[in-house]
Every structure is written in C-alpha cells, then in structure tokens.
Design goal:
With about 230 residues, the protein is of the alpha+beta class. About 35% of the residues lie in helices and about 30% in strands. The longest helix is centred in the middle third of the chain and has 28 residues.
Length: about 230
C-alpha cells in the first residue's frame, strides 16, 4: 500500500495520504513525520463518523472539506477509505484520475491483508516466553527490509521501524504507549535510544522483529537475525 500512497503523493498539491479501514483503523499512511500515529487514529475515526453520518456512498461519493489554506478529501471504497490532506491549489482533475487507478490497486491488497490476518496464528505461551529475557525485558530479532533504499530512509533519520503487530505487542507487554525504544546488544552492552516508525504495510514475516538500517546496525554491532533487548525509551 505504501507504494500506492507514495504515487498519490506525487500529485501536485498533495501533502499526505492514508488508508483507513471501515472500522476506523489506520491501515497504511504516507504523511509527514510531524503528523503522528495518534493524530491519524483520531482522523480515521472522525472520517468514518462523517462518512456514515452523511451516508456517503462507497460507489461514487467523496467528502471534500475545504479550509482557508487547504482541503481534506475522504474517498470511501469497499472495506476502506482514502484520506488525503491537500493544499488549496491541488489539481482535482488529475487527482480524481489518480485516485480511481489507486483504488483499483488497493482493493485486492485489502482482500489479501484480511485473509492473512484471519490465517495468522495467535502467539503461544511458548513463543512469548522465548521473547522475554532473564531481566524481564523483551528480546526481539533484528531484521532488514529487502528494499535497502526504504531502510535507509528511516535509518538516515536515526529511526528504527516495527510492524503494527509488533508495536501492539510491545505496548501491551510494557502496558504503555511509546515513541522511542531502547535497544541493547546484550553480548557487548552497546545500546541506544531511537525514535520508532510504525509501518502498517509490512509482510507478516516482520512481525516480532525490530527493523534497523546500516547506521544503527553498525552502532550497535548487530547483524540480521541477532537478538536485541528492547525497553521503552
């Protein structure tokens, strides 16, 4: 979904875009970093309420909120909705064509994601106990994105990444929301505190792992597959 949203963002006047589920969850987003996950979650719920309250059809209607310096466009489609933050100068004709093509590509991805979610086994007590170190802190595996360019994009900002499922697991384990994580290489004690990017459109193979780029990998002397102790930052 990220690739599709990035394509939408190339339309002149688009500031950011996101896909919200029909239950108000953020499925994927491509917004500037200053717009955090909590703000997007609130926006998803409000967009859902507006769409239902105004009885916007999934077939053809869209919600267009106009402000002095910009617009918010919500375009429902079966099972989800696109939310776009635009400048007031956005070219609506080009955007409409782009959205029509994007939705055709998004629909099969939504179906695939829902099938994977239903088929994914729940974590067992055994697998959960393996993820807890002797100190009581979580120990998760280091992984890399296949797309090194994408990995370098958040690595250059000094960030690490996790899947939505992993973020939920860490939050539930420590019973707290978080924006930063403390990673510790238990073999030599090197550690660091890093801002976290939650990526919503990742393959399930990344669940239960911490995704890092080359700079942080070098700093902590880690390789793909190594275990790292994870604490809240």
């Amino acid at each position: 979904m990220q690739e599709i949203l990035q394509h939408i963002n190339r339309v002149e006047g688009i500031i950011g875009s996101a896909v919200f589920s029909d239950s108000g969850d953020v499925l994927s987003q491509a917004f500037p970093l200053l717009i955090d996950a909590a703000s997007l979650k609130t926006a998803a719920k409000l967009a859902l309420e507006c769409a239902h309250g105004l009885q916007i059809s999934q077939a053809q209607d869209q919600l267009d909120l106009r402000y002095a310096e910009g617009r918010i466009i919500v375009r429902p489609f079966p099972g989800a909705m696109l939310c776009l933050l635009c400048s007031k100068a956005v070219n609506m004709q080009v955007l409409t064509i782009t959205l029509n093509l994007a939705i055709k590509k998004l629909e099969p991805k939504l179906h695939k994601a829902s099938v994977q979610a239903e088929a994914a086994p729940a974590p067992t007590a055994a697998t959960q106990s393996e993820a807890v170190g002797t100190s009581g802190n979580l120990k998760l595996t280091i992984s890399h994105l296949i797309n090194r360019e994408a990995s370098s994009s958040f690595d250059s900002l000094g960030m690490i990444a996790v899947s939505q499922s992993t973020a939920k697991y860490i939050g539930e384990y420590y019973k707290s929301a978080f924006k930063k994580l403390n990673l510790c290489n238990v073999s030599d004690g090197s550690s660091g505190i890093f801002p976290v990017m939650v990526m919503n459109d990742l393959d399930p193979m990344f669940d239960g792992t911490i995704i890092i780029g080359p700079k942080i990998e070098k700093k902590l002397k880690l390789s793909e597959g190594d275990k790292v102790e994870v604490k809240l930052g």
